[in-house]
C-alpha cells in the first residue's frame, strides 16, 4: 500500500520534495563518513542504521490512484521508488526525473498521455505488465541497469528515440507503431513481442532475440540484425532497403518474409542460401497465380460450365423457334427478354412474365463472384507480364491500395480474401442452382 507520508510530500511540489531528497542523501553521506553504512545487498548484511535510512528514503506509491494530472518533473528519488499497481487516471509527467535506485512500475496503469523524457534510471527500471492507454514518450532516457518491460502493453504509439535499450526485456510485450529509430536494441529480448508497424529505421538489433516476434509492416530500413534470432518471426510486409543486414542471423527457420522485401536487400542482406531455404518466403504474385491455375482453375472451369449450362440450354432450345417478324406480335417476345425472364423466374412459368424466384439470388451471387475473379485474374496476368518483361519480381504487395477515401480503404487483400470465401459460396450456389433446374419435369412421351 502507498505511504501517506509520500503522497502528502508529493502534493507539496518539486522544491519541497527535493529538499527532503537532499536531506536523505546528506544523511546517507554522514553514515558513510561515520562508517555506519553497511550494505552487501541482503538484510542480514545491512546495519541497523542502513535499514532505517532505506525505509525512510523509499517512496512508496503502490496501489495509489492518482485522480488528477500529475507532474513529477525534476523530482529526485534518493532510494527505491515503488509505483506497483498504481493508477494514473490523467496525464502524468516524469520528465527529467532522477531515480537514484531501483524503480518499480509493475502492473501500473497509465490512462492518459505519459512522458519520461530525459529521466535517469540509475537502478533497475521495472515496467512489467504495465499498460499505457495513450501516447507514451521515453525519449532521451538513460537506463544504467536492467530494463524490464516484460508483458508491457502500449495501446497507442510509444517513443524511445535517443534512448539506450541494450539488453532490455520486452518479451511478450505489445509495441505497435513504436518509434525506435536509431535506438540501440542490441541483445534485446523481443521474444513473442508485437512490433506491428514499428519504426526501426537504422536501429541496432544485433544479437536481439526476435523469435516468434511480429514485425508486420515494420520499417527495417538500415536496421542491423547481425547474429539475431529470427525463428518463426513474422516480417511480412516489413520494409527493407539495401542497408538492412542479417549477417550471421541464426535460427531463421520459419521466419516469414516477402520475396519482394528480400529482393530489396543487397546480396540478400547477408542471408545465406541455406538460411533462405528454411525461411517462409511469401510471394504475393505467386499467391494470386496459385489461386487461378492448376487444380483450382479446372474446378472453376467446371463450375462455370455448370453455372452457364441451364441458361445456354434455354437459349439453344428457344433458338429453334425464334424468328424475325416484320412487326410486333403478342405471341412473340425477343429472345433476350425470354432469357431474362427465365433467369428471374428460375425457369418456373417464365412465359407469364417477371416474377421473383429464389434461384435468381444464386445467379447474382455467381455473377458477382465471376466478376471479382475476372478482376483478380486480370491483375495476376498484368503482374506476370511485368515479370516476364523485366525478368525481375513484380513490385506488388497484396496490401497495396486500390481505392482510398477519408472513411474507407480498399486493398487487393480485401478482394483476395473475398474471393477465397466467395469461391466456397460460388460452388454451393452452382450446385444448388443445378439441382433446382435438374428437378424440372419432362414429358415421358414428347
Helices, strands, pairings?
Blueprint: H1 4-11, H2 14-33, H3 48-57, E1 59-60, E2 65-66, E3 70-71, E4 76-77, E5 81-82, E6 87-88, E7 92-93, E8 98-99, E9 103-104, E10 109-110, E11 114-115, E12 120-121, E13 125-126, E14 131-132, E15 136-137, E16 142-143, E17 147-148, E18 153-154, E19 158-159, E20 234-235, E21 256-258, H4 259-263, H5 273-278, E22 280-282, H6 284-291, H7 294-319, H8 335-345, H9 359-390, E23 401-404, E24 409-411, H10 412-438
Explain how this protein is built.
There is one protein chain. This protein is α/β, with parallel strands linked by helices and 446 residues long. It is elongated and about 120 Å long. It has 10 helices and 24 strands. A hairpin with a 4-residue loop joins strand 23 and strand 24. The chain has a 5-stranded parallel sheet with strand order 1-5-9-13-17, with no helix packed on it. The protein is 34% helix and 12% strand. Helix 2 (14-33) runs antiparallel to helix 3 (48-57). Among the domains are: 170-282, 3 Solenoid (Pectate Lyase C-like), CATH 2.160.20.80; 290-438, no CATH class. It has helices spanning 4-11, 14-33, 48-57, 259-263, 273-278, 284-291, 294-319, 335-345, 359-390, 412-438, and strands at residues 59-60, 65-66, 70-71, 76-77, 81-82, 87-88, 92-93, 98-99, 103-104, 109-110, 114-115, 120-121, 125-126, 131-132, 136-137, 142-143, 147-148, 153-154, 158-159, 234-235, 256-258, 280-282, 401-404, 409-411.
